[in-house]
Each structure stands twice: as structure tokens, then as C-alpha cells.
Amino acid sequence: MANGTAPSAAGAKAALPRPHRSRMRRRSPAFWFLIPAILALAVIGIYPLLLALYNSFHQYKLADLASGTPFIGLDNYIATLTDPSFWGALGRTALFLCLTLPIEVALGLFAALMLHRTALPWMRAAARVSLVIPMATTYAVVGLIGRLIFNRQFGVANYLTGLLGIPPQDWLADPTLAFVSVMIMDIWQWTPFCALIMLAGLAMVPKEAEEAARLETPKWSKILWHLQRPYLLPGLTAILILRSADMLKMFDAVFTMTRGGPGTATEFISIYIQRVGFRLFDQGMASAQAVLLLILTIVLSRLYIRFVYREAA
């Protein structure tokens, strides 16, 4: 009897791993499909971040590679935090963000409300297609368009201001006007993005509740604040996070349009980091500045989530 039960126990033990092996076979195709994305993330995102973090603690000057890359600890960070040029570039970037982002959000909300209230489906579809065009334009092309629009001799900006009796302005040579010109081009490109996100939030509002609110009060401001606002806040959080991160690292459009000038009027923090890294050839200092910029972006994102998204939740 003992001899009869032994083979059955052994057979049961041998059969136990089979479901586990079948589950592994079912999961293995998904794992293999994920490998290219994991490798791309590691090569494009994780490795450069780790390399920048490593360089930020070393003296790494491209013009003096013969002296090696000795470890210098926090010297690059201390030099960055005591550099007036770094704080000047960061201040210009913060001013650009504080002036441009509210305008983009306000204009995007206005466009979304207008499209949401229209009863013509074809007009709404045509507007959505037209809103995608500025977003699909690359940053370098936006900078080139800006150089043409604000050209003193044949730019459209001077033609339009001339209709109002204003004499021609040298937009890209005046520090204030160059800053305003970069703002205008960024607003033109990214207001449609804000509008589409806001329109998606408005589409989530229940139609029955919206119709009942319109019957109760004709004031659109009350409907917006009490009914539509909770549905807009998640999208608004995404806009704030994405646009703030984008403005902190914007380089192509500004560099193509003004080269950071005149003087340092449009030398934002990303352009300053590029100048330190590839014109002064100090990769260690530039890496430390990039790491500090990443920390600032993370802090801003956490603040947006805490004060904007939490209110929506």
C-alpha cells in the first residue's frame, strides 16, 4: 500500500510546477514586448541622468581633459548657487513662466468655453484640427517664424503696428521687446494645447447637470466656478506641470529666434546651461546646474499636485 501511494505522490509533485510554467509562458511575450521600451528608457533617460549626476561631483572641463576628472564634492553646486549669472537666468525664466503661463491658461479656457458652447459639430471639429497645427510645429521652426514676424524691415508685426500709427520697432534688438516677442510666440504655440485639455475637461461635465445649472442661473461665471471647475482642475494640473517643465527647459525656439539676446534679455536658464557646458566647456558646472533645474521642476510639480489636484480630488 505504501508502495502504491509513492508513485502518486511523486506524480503530484511533478505536476505542481506545470501551472506555474504555463503562467510564465503566457507572461513571457508581454515581457519581451516591454524590453525595447525599457532599453530606450534606460539609454535615453536614466543613463544621461546618472552621467550628469556623476559629472556634477567632478571637475570635468572639455578644454582641459588632460588633467582628468577629479572628484570635487559639492564645489560645482556651491559655485552655481553663488553665481549671479545663474540666478539672473533663473529669474528671467521665472518671470517668463509667471507672465506667459497664466495668459496661455486664460486664453485656452476662453477658447474651450467658446467651443464647448457652440452647437455646430463641424465647427468644433474644424477648430480642433486647427488647434493642433501650432502644437505640431517644431520649436526651431517656431523660432524661425518669430524671426520673420518680428523682423524690422519686412516683419508682419511692424506692418500691423504701422496700421495703428506706431513707428517701426526693432523687436529683436530691444531687450524688452525681444522678451515680449518670445512670449508671443510661445503663447501662439501652446495656447491650443491648453484649450484642448480644457475642452476635454468640459466634455466630462454631465449634460443634465449643466442644463439644470443654466436654467437656474444665466451667469456663466457661477456655472464655471461651481459646476465645471472640479472637472477642469485635473487637466489644469497637467497643464501646469507640463508647461512649467517645458518652459524651464525651453531652448530651441529661443535660441533660434534671439540666441539669448540682445545681451542677456532672453538668456533663460537652459540657454545659460548650454553656454556654460558648450561655450565655456565646463561640463561639471553645467551638470550641477541641470541637476538643480531638475530638482526645481520636481518641487514645482509636487506643489501643483498638492494645491491644485488635491482640491479637485
From TrEMBL:
It comes from the Bacteria. InterPro entries: MetI-like, MetI-like_sf. Residues 90-304 form the ABC transmembrane type-1 domain. Keywords: Cell membrane, Membrane, Transmembrane, Transmembrane helix, Transport. Residues 1-21 are annotated as: Disordered. The chain crosses the membrane at residues 30-54, 94-115, 127-150, 187-206, 227-245, 286-305. The lineage of its organism: Bacteria, Pseudomonadati, Pseudomonadota, Betaproteobacteria, Burkholderiales. Belongs to the binding-protein-dependent transport system permease family. This is Binding-protein-dependent transport systems inner membrane component. It comes from Caballeronia humi. It is found in: Cell membrane. GO terms for cellular component: plasma membrane. Residues 1-17 have a biased composition (Low complexity). GO terms for biological process: transmembrane transport. The keyword Transmembrane applies. It is a multi-pass membrane protein.
